[in-house]
Amino acid sequence: MMLRVLLTIVAMTVTALLCGAGERHEARVAQEQVRFVAYDVIVDPVGRPLGAYQVDFAAARPGDITIVGIEGGEHPAFAQPPFYDPKALMNERAVLAAFSTDAALPEGPTLVARVHVRITGDAVPDLTVALTVAAGPGGDRFETATVTTRLAAPEGDDS
Questions:
Q1: What single string gives the DSSP state of each residue in 119-134?
Q2: pLDDT class for 121, splitting at 50, 70, 90?
Q3: Three-state SS across 20-36?
Q4: CB atoms inside a 10 Å sphere around CB 34
Q5: pLDDT score, position 84
Q6: Helices in 32-95 by DSSP H: which ranges?
Q7: Are 44 and 145 in contact (CB under 8 A)?
């Protein structure tokens, strides 16, 4: 009888300790910093009219970011959000692509998309961005076009 009581007390103590540890872990996770930022994706066709592009935007280290939204660019030819692969988004990667048949196409560095991400913790994400293809209005590929990203200015910040 005494052994049964002792085992019950030990079992209850272990259960209480495990539940308390779980609550502390949940509280620590809840307190972890979460922030949202946006990155501008800029394609430079180097003086030629940009009619189409495809860009691969990703986190170099898994878990750094979660892509939560994609907007179009500033130039009217690319104002609509680009097409993207929804399956790639599940792997912290966005394959963005757009084309335009507008008569007036950008010929210099152009913000073609804005990618919104969620960052957990205080780490600075290591992003990779690669231009898969850029082409003119007739479909001619540009071998010298470039792509860059920059941290977008917060909404309402005109600086």
A1: EESSPPP-EEEEEEEE
A2: confident
A3: HHHHHHHHHHHHCCEEE
A4: 10
A5: 93
A6: 86-89
A7: yes
